Amino acid sequence: MRQPIRQAVTTLSIQTHGQGLVEVTEPIARWLGGQGIATGLLTVFCRHTSASLVIQENADPDVRTDLERFFQRLVAEDPSLYDHTLEGPDDMPAHIRSALTTVQLSIPVVEGRMALGTWQGVYLFEHRRRPHGRQIVLHVLGE
Amino acid sequence: MRQPIRQAVTTLSIQTHGQGLVEVTEPIARWLGGQGIATGLLTVFCRHTSASLVIQENADPDVRTDLERFFQRLVAEDPSLYDHTLEGPDDMPAHIRSALTTVQLSIPVVEGRMALGTWQGVYLFEHRRRPHGRQIVLHVLGE
Amino acid sequence: MRQPIRQAVTTLSIQTHGQGLVEVTEPIARWLGGQGIATGLLTVFCRHTSASLVIQENADPDVRTDLERFFQRLVAEDPSLYDHTLEGPDDMPAHIRSALTTVQLSIPVVEGRMALGTWQGVYLFEHRRRPHGRQIVLHVLGE
Fold it and tell me: Mean per-residue pLDDT for B93-120?
């Protein structure tokens, strides 16, 4: 008999090291692998407004550096531009960089794995200057 | 016996007040609360190309103002830059601002509520100068 | 008796023609129409880091041209700005443009169809100068 659709949810804690991308593909894949779901939909959700999620190339590390620099140029850490400066000069730029990327990714699961392309990795994008402990919620629905 | 996964869908009408963020966390939470779903996945979908969705800090209102101003600077309302000007100088910038943010958010549901972080609120981002009636579709799958 | 929730998944191959938007609403709608799902959630996932997805206006073609030009201005193809230049001057800008838009869209299904607004179309956004064969994964959960 066909198994009914079921779901699982967990929260991962990720330590960041100041501004930049932290790859989270592996801890997500490990958790997903333990759920015994062959086909389904995995959702990754970042519970913060000064960190976000991106899928980027996982081959040349220069891609991550170039991406980080682009966002530094695009969203200047210049307090004269913002009213919200109480939490430091990097806080409002962090909120904006988060809005320009995303805090949520849903990825189909095929043959028990995320249907990522060959060169795709999932990254937590820390936008604050200091290291932070960040939470991402993982949810999977499937069978 | 374990309850099977089920789903619900509705459309919310949101009145905007010209360019800026309108918080929609509360009406979404109210609808979700009525569905009796403890664990699942909630999707919010904006049916427009000149309004969008963002998750932003719900504490200091300056964050919203700073975010709005950033998008006004980044995507200038300068008709000389665009061919699509028939619907007004704010229409093409609205489409671009929508593409830079998102029209869709999926948020895990845990213990009957959206798994938002402490400082996260869900906002409809109106990109046109005039007030508009906007539709967002809510969909939840869970048990 | 109520039908249980079920799911389907497929991969579409899309040919692009160099930088610009390729509408994919129709092939997605055709596949969805064949699944016999009245209510549910459709996810579109782009398996690349130099192409992405956007929902944009499907009426005036100038909107697409203006959007493409905006991204060309915002993310310059200037090799002096990037370290990652081995794959050509358009590769790193492509990765950044992909991060600024999204590689994933989830759209509620209502009455057997995507709950898109009247003016919304789904587009694959090619960011490389040359034509490419691109893969998008479609996943639907519903009943």
Answer: 98
Q: What is the pLDDT of residue A2?
A: 61
Residue A97: other Cβ atoms inside 10 A: 23
pLDDT at C109 over 70: yes
The CA distance from C60 to B18, in Å, is 23
The per-residue pLDDT for B2 is 61
> CB B108 to CB A139 under 8 A?
yes
| Structural domains of chain B ordered from first start | 6-142 (2.60.120.460)
Q: What is the number of alpha carbons within 13 Å of residue C71 lying toward its C-beta?
A: 31
Please tell me the pTM assigned to this model: 0.97
Q: What angle do CA A79, A83, A89 make, to 5 degrees?
A: 35
Mean pLDDT value of segment C34-47: 98
Give CA separation, B89 vs A103, B101, C61, in Å: 30, 20, 17
Spans of chain A, pLDDT less than 70: 1-3
Percent of chain A surpassing pLDDT 70:
98
Which of C58, C66, C69, C96 should be substituted to probe chain B, the one whose Cβ sees the most B Cβ atoms within 10 Å? C66
Contact criterion met (CB below 8 Å) for B137 and B47? yes
Q: What is the model's pLDDT at position C4? A: 86
Q: Phi and psi at residue C15, in whole multiples of 5°? A: -90, 125
- Spatial separation of the C-alpha atoms in residues B12 and A132, rounded to whole Å: 36
Inter-CA distances, A105 with A44, A138, A142, C76, C101, Å: 5, 10, 16, 26, 12
Which among C54, C100, C107 has the least Cβ separation from residue B45? C107
What residues does C94 pair with on adjacent strands? none
B38 touches chain A (CB under 8 A): no
* Predicted confidence (pLDDT) at residue B3 exceeds the cutoff of 90: no
Distance of CA A105 to the CA centre of its chain: 8
- Name, in order, each residue with C-beta under 8 angstroms of A40's C-beta and a sequence gap of 6 or more: A5, A108, A109, A140, A141, A142, A143, C7, C139, C141
